[in-house]
């Protein structure tokens, strides 16, 4: 050290010494924290832990959880690979914070179902753009009485406004018709269908929540879609100043984080405007939609200081409904179209079954689903291969637990790798092969598989599961009843490789929709 210091001027010597002390202390603390009773896992680096070894690709996206370090790129694939060495339960570190990772159907079910009392909560997550950090909607709310109250209300309100009923099928078919009419205008020209699908799914949510829909050229509707897309596409490195304010000294990071924050503020303002309109015309004897139902519940609790039915809670629930209900379902439909282009023989079989059950003019209904086993099997295989949400939202333990021979303490973050189940070669031979017959028995009838945990499982099962399944079946069958999807003439063969982010999405591609005669 004396030789080193003698060769440097004093300011640089002091900095070198300070950095060395910090590294030594951090290394000791990190090693000490890694020697607990947690499951073993891959060795990390001092200070940063496993951050750099969890991703293979450059930064491209950030998720709406504002959780910078895990749900990104091909982390689900890396976790699945590590499980072969460390087992289905292991620990990774983001800085000094341990995260227990669950892989495989057995381990995930044992945690989320068998031990649901311990594994069903959520860690603290900042709600950007909200003046009330206690208003966390459903997604970010810990497993508390507040969560149970709002989940019960949300599920009841969704049912009241059509989810699971024939009336909702009519709204979805209306959107499927509008989508088909717009596609017809393309007149066999090549186009990207991604934004059109988001228009469709956004309008389904809008009809439930707002009691109205957006025309495809509606300015407010396009602004809403743009804000949703920007939420999912921002570069995650631009989130650093939000988590670490000192990073604001770097202009590019400061500007990126401000863009994201401003986008969330604008998104919230969009919903506040809708809430204000509903308040102006609210009639407790004429409940028109989800917002009215929430306002009625808030009105019933007026004067109750402990009421959680606040305007900010409503705005956050709306934000989550639109972000999840628009993007994930649209991306699954996007995958569906891509797989039909990549497998024209399967597309033809689905169309033959649709023709035999529906003919050319009859609208599909959920009652037809049992008569269309091959179509049902194809949709299940699309859901499996798409794995649109490859990592479940982070869980959090509410108490100490001995789990599979390891001691997991209270307040430990838990990562649930859905991808590891949907691409498990022990469950699905040749898991990267698109094969609908996995879901058919020897007689050709559809077979349901419990390992299809696309919407997670346990107490945090996605509340939008039923609606998403109805949308996928009705929109998919409507499209294939009317169109055959093909690649543009002379274009290269598309790949089934997607892009990891909050959702696992297809890379943008062009297609041609040929009207069926």
Question: Explain this structure to me?
Answer:
- There is one protein chain.
- The chain is an alpha+beta fold.
- It has a single domain (34-515), classed as Cytochrome p450, CATH 1.10.630.10.
- The chain has helices spanning 2-6, 10-33, 75-86, 105-114, 116-119, 145-160, 166-184, 194-209, 219-233, 240-243, 251-281, 290-300, 311-342, 344-358, 373-386, 418-422, 465-482, and strands at 89-94, 97-102, 395-396, 401-403, 406-408, 413-416, 483-486, 498-499, 505-506, 512-515.
- Helix 8 (194-209) packs antiparallel against helix 13 (311-342), helix 9 (219-233) crosses helix 11 and helix 11 (251-281) packs across helix 13 (311-342).
- Residues 1-12, 30-35 and 57-73 have low confidence and may be disordered.
Concise summary:
The chain has 517 residues and is an alpha+beta fold. The protein has helices at residues 2-6, 10-33, 75-86, 105-114, 116-119, 145-160, 166-184, 194-209, 219-233, 240-243, 251-281, 290-300, 311-342, 344-358, 373-386, 418-422, 465-482, and strands at 89-94, 97-102, 395-396, 401-403, 406-408, 413-416, 483-486, 498-499, 505-506, 512-515. Its EC number is 1.14.14.80.
Question: Class in CATH?
Answer: Mainly Alpha
Would you count the extended β strands for me? Answer: 10
Helix fraction, binned, reads 40-55%
How many domains make up the 3D coordinates? 1
- Mean pLDDT across the residues is 85
Query: What is the 3D shape?
Result: globular
Give the end-to-end Cα distance, rounded to a whole number of Å: 83 Å
Radius of gyration: 25 Å
Largest sheet: 4 strands, mixed
Oligomer: single chain
- Count every helix, treating DSSP H or I runs of 4 or more residues as helices: 17
Residue fraction in strands = 5-15%
How is the CATH topology named?
Cytochrome p450
Identify the CATH homologous superfamily.
Answer: Cytochrome P450
Please write the string of helix (H) and strand (E) elements: HHHEEHHHHHHHHHHHHEEEEHHEEEE
Spans of at least 5 consecutive residues whose pLDDT stays below 50 are 1-12, 30-35, 57-73
EC number: 1.14.14.80
Transmembrane segments: 12-30
Organism: Branchiostoma floridae (Florida lancelet)
Protein name: Cytochrome P450 2U1
């Amino acid at each position: 050290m004396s030789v080193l210091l003698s060769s440097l001027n004093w300011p640089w010597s002091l900095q070198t010494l300070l950095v060395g002390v910090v590294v030594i202390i951090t290394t000791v603390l990190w090693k000490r924290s890694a020697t607990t009773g947690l499951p073993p896992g891959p060795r990390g680096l001092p200070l940063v832990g496993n951050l750099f070894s969890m991703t293979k690709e450059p930064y491209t996206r950030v998720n709406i959880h504002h959780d910078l370090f895990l749900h990104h790129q091909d982390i689900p694939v890396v976790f699945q690979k590590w499980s072969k060495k460390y087992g289905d339960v292991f620990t990774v570190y983001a800085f000094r914070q341990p995260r227990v990772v669950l892989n495989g159907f057995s381990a995930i079910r044992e945690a989320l179902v068998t031990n649901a009392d311990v594994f069903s909560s959520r860690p603290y997550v900042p709600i950007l753009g909200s003046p009330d950090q206690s208003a966390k909607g459903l997604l970010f709310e810990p497993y508390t009485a507040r969560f149970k109250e709002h989940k019960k209300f949300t599920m009841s309100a969704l049912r009241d406004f059509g989810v699971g009923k024939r009336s909702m099928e009519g709204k979805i078919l209306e959107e499927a018709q509008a989508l088909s009419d717009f596609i017809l205008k393309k007149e066999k020209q090549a186009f990207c269908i991604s934004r059109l699908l988001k228009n469709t799914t956004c309008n389904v949510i809008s009809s439930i929540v707002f009691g109205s829909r957006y025309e495809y050229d509606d300015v407010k509707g396009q602004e809403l879609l743009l804000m949703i897309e920007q939420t999912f596409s921002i570069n995650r490195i631009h989130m650093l100043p939000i988590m670490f304010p000192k990073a604001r000294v770097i202009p590019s990071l400061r500007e990126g984080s401000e863009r994201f924050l401003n986008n969330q503020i604008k998104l919230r303002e969009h919903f506040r405007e809708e809430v204000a309109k509903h308040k102006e015309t609210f009639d407790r004897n004429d409940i028109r939609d989800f917002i009215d139902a929430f306002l009625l519940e808030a009105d019933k609790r007026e004067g109750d200081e402990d009421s959680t039915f606040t305007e900010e809670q409503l705005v956050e629930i709306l934000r989550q409904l639109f972000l999840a209900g628009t993007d994930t379902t649209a991306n699954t439909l996007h995958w569906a179209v891509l797989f039909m282009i990549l497998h024209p023989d399967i597309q033809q079989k689905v169309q033959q079954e649709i023709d035999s059950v529906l003919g050319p003019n009859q609208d599909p209904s959920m009652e037809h689903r049992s008569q269309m086993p091959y179509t049902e099997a194809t949709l299940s295989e699309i859901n499996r291969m798409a794995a649109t949400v490859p990592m479940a939202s982070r869980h959090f333990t509410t108490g100490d637990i001995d789990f599979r021979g390891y001691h997991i303490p209270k307040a430990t973050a838990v990562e649930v790798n859905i991808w590891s189940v949907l691409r498990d070669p022990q469950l699905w031979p040749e898991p990267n092969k698109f094969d609908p017959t996995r879901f058919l028995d020897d007689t050709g009838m559809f077979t349901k598989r419990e390992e299809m945990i696309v919407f997670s499982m346990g107490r945090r099962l996605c509340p939008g599961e039923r609606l998403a399944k109805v949308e996928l079946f009705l929109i998919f069958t409507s499209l294939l009843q009317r169109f055959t999807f093909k690649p543009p003439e002379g274009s290269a063969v598309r790949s089934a490789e997607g892009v990891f982010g909050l959702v696992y999405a297809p890379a943008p591609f062009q297609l041609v929709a040929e009207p069926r005669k």
